[in-house]
Amino acid sequence: MANRANTANTADTASTGADRAGAEPRRGGPERPAASHRSRRERPSSSRRRFRYGPYLLILPSLAVLCVVLVWPIIQMVWISLHSYTLRHLNSGSPEWNSFAHYVSILSDGYFWRVFANTIAVTAIMVVLTMVLGTLVGLLLHKLPRWFSTIVAVGLMLAWATPVLTASFVYRWMFWTERGLVNYLLQVLPDWLVGSGWDDYNWFIDAASLFTILILIVVWQSFPFVAVSVLAGLKSIPHEMYEAARVDGAGPWRSFWSVTFPMLRPLFALILILQIIWDFRVFTQLFVLANGFQNRDVFLLSYYSYQQGFAATPANYGMGSAIAVIMTVLVLVITAYHIRMMIRQGELR
């Protein structure tokens, strides 16, 4: 009887241990059915996977519009630059393939490199003056009272929003040879101060004087954008950083290079890229000031491209497109270089 009782107790203990083992699996060997059930439960459903592509489907119409408006014209421009495309081919519709003949002709032409040098020099002067003047005005607006700063900023944006064609005609009238305001003011000033002969001086023949007016127009219309952008960036800098710099003995110049410039470096880089792109392709202002294509000393790349494509005799669309392709490549190279530098410095992520 004692043996039977011990056997029964042993069986009950074994069954109880089995029940516990079923209820609480051992840590060393997790139960596989539970793991497979958990993996099925955590697996994303097909509807959730489809929803991942929802944002891409939403921006697809915008991408399609950009391709039609931007990418397709660039492809057409490159295609035309590789063909002999003139007015005669507009009717026949079968331009001749000439490979890279236009590019070889352009790059071996000394006049192209003179126009290229003028474009680089004028663009550099416009960009530097715009950035410096816009930054100084932005710093000044930041020091003014809020109500006065708002009034001045609105006035500056009115200059920036003025149509380019309107501003170009206004400046052309100001520097007009016979009845221009600038010539009148220079004529009434003492000769020992400004010289004489300003009553009939033509500002639009000499390349230096015409480029001076061109730079003046572009800077006048461009620096308000830089000033307002810098002003917005300055308002985001904590005032405590300037207080700490002042405690350390830093003056205005040192505070700008130690606090303002490092904090606004991404903003300055973005504005610089935009100004290079905008100023490099200046056309309307030069078209109004030059008033024709007779003076080839005042050509810039954009003006030269238009002259070859539409104003030459005969019009050579292939040559004009080749110059435009070169301009596009230059702008892309400059932009890519600045973006790469920003990424290296950790300003873009």
TrEMBL record:
Its main location: membrane. Residues 1-18 have a biased composition (Low complexity). It is found in: Cell membrane. Residues 35-46 have a biased composition (Basic residues). It comes from the Bacteria. Keywords: Cell membrane, Membrane, Transmembrane, Transmembrane helix, Transport. The chain crosses the membrane at residues 53-75, 115-141, 148-171, 208-234, 255-278, 317-339. GO terms for biological process: transmembrane transport. It is a multi-pass membrane protein. Residues 21-30 have a biased composition (Basic and acidic residues). Residues 1-46 are annotated as: Disordered. Pfam families: BPD_transp_1. Residues 116-338 form the ABC transmembrane type-1 domain. InterPro entries: MetI-like, MetI-like_sf, UgpAE/MalFG_permease. One of its GO terms (cellular component) is plasma membrane. Belongs to the binding-protein-dependent transport system permease family. This is N,N'-diacetylchitobiose transport system permease protein. It comes from Allonocardiopsis opalescens.
